[in-house]
Design goal:
Diaminopimelate Epimerase, Chain A, domain 1, globular, alpha+beta, 2 domains
Length: 334
């Protein structure tokens, strides 16, 4: 680390986002997936400094802004977490939409501002609502998202046969009803959901090969979302918990997870285009989600989803490492 790392901390529906504002070296040019590979292969020590203790924690999340490659992109971002680098993050898009307006990266027109954000999964368009001259609610329209595998069944250790879907919402998720594991929201501890979701993720990773029509780098199972089973359209919220990366728990309803759930719901005929559904997280925070349009992703019938929420600032920091600090490079207790 040649100079301090500076960050702005935000949260969206309770899920943290650490936006890196300085301290990284200049990255080589290329596509965003090439930039992601470079950061992963050559600068991963900086991720650990920012995400791990004593500056972060096992469920910390981060965003590194990089030079856009796609025409029309206002900014580009690499997402980071406790295990590495993801391909899409909806809660981060909501936060970065507000950040882009507040930092003057884009200018609002009337009571709206449009922010085009290049992500490893593609270009995501965010719309920021202005309230009394300040950025407030943010919505985004996802990349093409689809149900990849329907009604899969795997025997998961001593839990028996578990039925689940795999859907893509900028990242691939296994989607399963929590009741299959004997779990109920509001009754059972989060640790029980984490254990169940992680076991399903690992079983599915071992047995079900994934593919994506755009790039092989997108074809990996990011995590598992356990739901309350209320998939059919209703005016009542549906609750879920997302466990991703190395048993990391999303405090928000998970923007890319909501997108994946909407893609699966639509494929199952459980929600129609334009119908708005409320998705609730493990802490009770909420996103609105709807099927925005129908489209295709290679051979897959797909949708784009519109997901809405709000982000808030929580702090600004400058991080250093003293030369004789044996723990300065970061560690995790779990």
């Amino acid at each position: 680390m040649n100079k301090p790392l500076t960050v702005i901390d935000m949260h969206t529906a309770g899920e943290p986002l650490r936006v890196v504002t300085g301290g990284y070296p200049e990255l080589p040019g290329g596509t965003i997936l090439q930039k992601r590979a470079h950061v992963r292969d050559h600068l991963d020590h900086l991720r650990k400094i920012l995400m791990f203790e004593p500056r972060g924690h096992a469920d910390q999340y981060g965003a590194l802004l990089v030079e856009p490659d796609l025409p029309g992109a206002d900014l580009a971002v690499l997402f980071m977490h406790n295990e590495g680098y993801s391909t899409m993050c909806g809660h981060a898009i909501i936060a970065l939409g507000r950040y882009a307006v507040d930092e003057g990266l884009v200018n609002p027109v009337g009571d709206r501002a449009s922010v085009n954000i290049e992500c490893p999964c593609g270009l995501v368009r965010a719309e920021v609502t202005m309230l009394n001259g300040k950025a407030a609610d943010v919505s985004f329209e996802s990349v093409p998202s689809f149900l990849f595998a329907r009604d899969c069944v795997l025997t998961v250790d001593d839990l028996g046969d578990i039925t689940f879907d795999i859907a893509y919402g900028g990242a691939f998720y296994a989607l399963a009803e929590a009741g299959q594991f004997g779990l109920e929201f509001g009754r059972d501890p989060v640790s029980a959901f984490v254990e169940a979701a992680d076991r399903l993720t690992r079983a599915a990773q071992a047995e079900i090969p994934l593919s994506h029509p755009d790039a092989d780098d997108l074809a990996f199972l990011y995590g598992t979302i356990l739901t309350d089973g209320r998939d059919a359209f209703s005016e009542h919220p549906t609750r879920n918990i997302c466990v991703f990366a190395d048993r990391q728990v999303d405090r928000s309803p998970t923007g890319s997870g909501v997108t994946a759930r909407l893609a699966a719901m639509h494929a199952h005929g459980q929600i129609g285009e334009g119908q708005v559904r409320i998705f609730e997280s493990v802490i009770g925070s909420r996103f609105e989600g709807a099927v925005a349009s129908r489209t295709h992703a290679g051979p897959h019938e797909a949708i784009t989803a519109r997901v809405s929420g709000r982000a808030f600032y929580s702090g600004r920091s400058e991080f250093i490492i003293e030369h004789d600090d044996p723990l300065g490079s970061g560690f995790l207790v779990r």
